[in-house]
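Let's practice the habit of predicting before peeking. Look at the sequence and jot down your guess about where helices and strands might fall. Then scroll down.
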Amino acid sequence: MGNASPSVSSNETRNEQFVSLFVRNQWALFSYIFSLLPSWADAEDMFQQTSMILWRKFEQFDQKDPQSNFVHWACQIARFEVLNYMKKNRRDRHVFSDTLFEMLAEEGMSETARLENERRALAGCLDQLQTGHRRLIQQCYAGKDSVTQVAQWMGCTPNSLYKRLHRIRIALLRCIEQTLAAGGKL
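Done guessing? Here is the structure:
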């Protein structure tokens, strides 16, 4: 077997870049779309349609450009798709006017950016936690065990575990607020 041609290798790398960016940001994109539509089902349909368009248009996204932001780019495409969808369904009395839609889209875009900044700050603050605290947070919030089960496993009461979790959450909140106040830098 011969070596893959540079274009195949380049395409595979580009496909991997898309998948990585898309998977990392799919919830932010769905949240944005859902903020513009009246129902979960409509948002799911538009998310699927937008996802296919993003895949087809990924060559237009310039990841090398520092001003480029995948979520912003994806949300702009979603915005146009939702607007087209709403124009097609104009007869439905639950469709927003173009002016209201634009206001909601702008608000949704800034909300998506804010939530993404908060998510990044949280991830950084979680990394800064003591190992035991980080494990406790993961076990109680990302695991399948209830707080009561974790407390039993740790040999403490659920009430004392709730208090410990509360102190850790307060520390995380302070860290997040400080991080955001410093412009997102830890």
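How did you do? The radius of gyration is 21 Å.
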